[in-house]
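Model it.
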Amino acid sequence: MKKRVRIAAMCMSFMFLIAGCGKGEETKDAPKEQNQAEQEESAQGEEAVLNIAYQYGLAYAPLGIIQEQGLIEKAYEDATGNKVTVTWNQMSSGADINTGISGGSIDAGFMGVGPAVTGVTKGVGYKIFTNLSGQEHGIMTNDENIKSFDDLIGSSNQIALVNIGSFQHILLAMALENAGHDPHALDSNIVAMAHPDGMTALQSGNVSCHLTSSPYIFKEREDNKLHEIKDVADAWGVEGSFIVGVASEKMHNDNPELYQALCDAVAEAVDFMNNSPEEAAKITCQFDGNTEQEELEYIKKSNYTVETKGLFELASFMARTEFIENAPGSYEDLVFDNVSGD
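Modeled.
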């Protein structure tokens, strides 16, 4: 009898042990499920960050519309329900933007098409995601003895432009070749200066020439102490791509919603520039330092479009004249799938 009681007691203890273990497993698993739900909720509400770089001049005017109207933030929130913080960094050259993107501090940038092609073919880690604008270019001089390239080649006259390898440098090479000269005949005359600094240096006599884009070329043409060497203006018209947008492949691949919001914002801003130039001028003049009337006049002389023009032609010239080492095989090698043009 005592033996049967001991066996029964052991069975009951074993049942309690099993029950206790089961209860312990449920308690242990519950926090895991709860933590996972909290993590998912936290990820959904996490605020994205987009770091954008750009440069100086009227060519970048649509970016003023994007900033003022918060177009990226609106597009991203409409698509995802989440917030994005957009930071804008003004830089002096495309080379600086390339450094920022390759280092991971910049996600997207707007720059001259020449440096953009250079960055793509060098494997900086981005492609072109949109065109932004085409602008007039020209080279002005304060020296009455300079009439053509013949007067500059072999001289010590300095030519201010944004940077070696910039679009302005490539444009100078195209103009030289069109005039029958070596495209690099004036490389040693170049001094790197941001557009505003170059205009100041030209007007003060610190440099002999300045190759620039709008609005600086328009302002310089109004100065009766300066005159223009026409070859540059004829080499690349306002219809051709000048400023393009580049986006890191990391952002394009890892955050397609943010990439699309950026594309949509640029397209909306470009449409606004073209459809409402008077309203656009009121906004962008605050960024460019022009009067509202000046801004409107300059906008009407510009070409704002998201479609590239002459991109592959320019890249082929750059490869032939050794501005880049690796020639792209096709237009598609330079752009993301959403981009249209040539």
